[in-house]
Amino acid sequence: MAESIGEGREICQLSIAMAKRKRNQSREPSKERKKSSKKSKIDPAVSGPSTHLREKDFTGDDSDNNDDYIAFNVSDDDEITKSEPESVQDKSSRRNTDDESKKTSKRRPDETWKRYIDDGLERPWAKDFRYRKARNIGERLNMEMTDLVEYLSPTEEEHTMRRFAVHRIRQCAQMVYPSCTIEVFGSFETKLYLPTSDIDLVLFYDGKDARDTTRVLSRLADALRKQGIAYTVQVIAKARVPIIKFEETFTGYQIDVSLNTANGVHSAEVVKEMLVQAPALGPLTLIFKHLLGLLKLNEVFTGGLGSYAVVLMVMSCLQTHPKVDMSDAMDNLGVIFVDLLELYGQHFNIYNVGIDVAKKGFYEKMETRNTFAVRDPTDASNDVSRGSFNCQQIRIALKDAFNTLTRAITSLNRQVWDFHKKDDGISLLGCIIHVDRQAITHRSQVLDAYTSQQWKDMPGAETFDASDNESSISTTKEQVIVHKQHDVFDKKGKRRSKKDIVYVLEDEDPEFKGKGNAWSSEEDDHGLSLPQLA
Fold this sequence. Notes:
By secondary structure, the chain is an alpha+beta fold. It has a five-stranded mixed sheet with strand order 1-2-5-4-3, sandwiched between helices. A three-stranded antiparallel sheet has the order 10-11-12, covered by helices on one side. Helix 8 (156-176) packs across helix 10 and helix 14 crosses helix 15 (391-418). The termini are far apart. Among the domains are: 2-41; 469-534. It has helices at residues 2-39, 44-47, 79-82, 91-95, 97-103, 128-131, 137-152, 156-176, 187-190, 213-226, 263-277, 281-294, 307-320, 333-347, 391-418, 437-451, and strands spanning 181-185, 199-204, 230-236, 243-248, 254-259, 353-356, 361-364, 375-376, 379-383, 471-475, 480-489, 495-506. Its EC number is 2.7.7.19. Its cofactor is Mn(2+).
């Protein structure tokens, strides 16, 4: 009996030992898989907040590498592909990488970036037949940048319809507040707006109740709604800058109206001056803004970058670029755009350095914080990017765009100029940029409304000047006289008369210098005696 019990114990212990051995054997592959997964961990700067971005002072340029800031890196290194997420790579090809490298030393062009072709998104700017004629990768990218800018830029018809929307709003505002004026500012004034951009307006009103911002904006919002000019109206009274947000009923454009905020008008004048100094500022700004819009990082109230901040950041990149002069930047749009993504997505030291376009350089932050700092050229105390709290997400998105675009450039360069394969003309920018179908449809609707003359049947059309000739200027050596005509409306919205204001800007006769303001109607003469022009 005792012997049988002992034998049973031995059998039990043996079975337990065998079970443990099998369990350990089954665990060993999983350990190996864990080790391999650690080795293939992606760059945290691509998938999450960066913990090891270079933080050289000011530009953060790595002086040890001696990389050419302007040239494309189309060498055979794997730095770009290593930072790509694992989901982009083919798992089966990853398993056999070592075996294939042993069989042949000749590298094949990586065409995984072309997968976007089947994503169903629109890239209407791309002209494949043109890009096949490029002599090198830089010229090819520059061609496509030019085509994209041409597509994104506002057409004459679109600008006229935006002006018509502003005219209807101005007419309604003057019915509610007869002494008020409505001014347009921001990207509308500089024509750096996208097809989907809002129209920014400011209501200048100095009445007795002007201090009650909420009441003033609410009255205007009610009038716009009742006149059928606006729907989906919101009065955002508790914002840092209270505004009315709505959609104009005829054109479908999104409108923002603020009260007595003169900063926006001043910033438009600054941008106009910079556009003269740097012709490449406009094209680069349009594409950069469009990319941020696709990434949902173009609205300040959601932590993104505002239009004015984007313009100043692009201008700073042009001012401080070590290889390209601003006068020659139009010939290097593609290279500068890639550098722009790399600079603000990877190398710029946001913690200690701010952007100062007025001094064509940078400044040291007084306090360390993980957001961009962009000084207003008209007011050094105003940080135009202070509301862009989602800075880390902006950097991650820009770095990811830089990696993807650079990978596409490297791949195409190997395919065409190293392996001598035919260039299929596929869009390079298409791997990071597209156009929403909704935006394409809306542009088509606006064009139809203009060409079919539908707008002429809308209220306010009879007083709208579609020619955009708001003023005429006559000049001689002695004087400069500006004639402007403004419509005057009654409470029912009908045009009562024309107000003709004549400004004598310069004249030798002190009797007329600085004078010349007068009212006139269609029937009456103002009776003002002005010096006759020769």
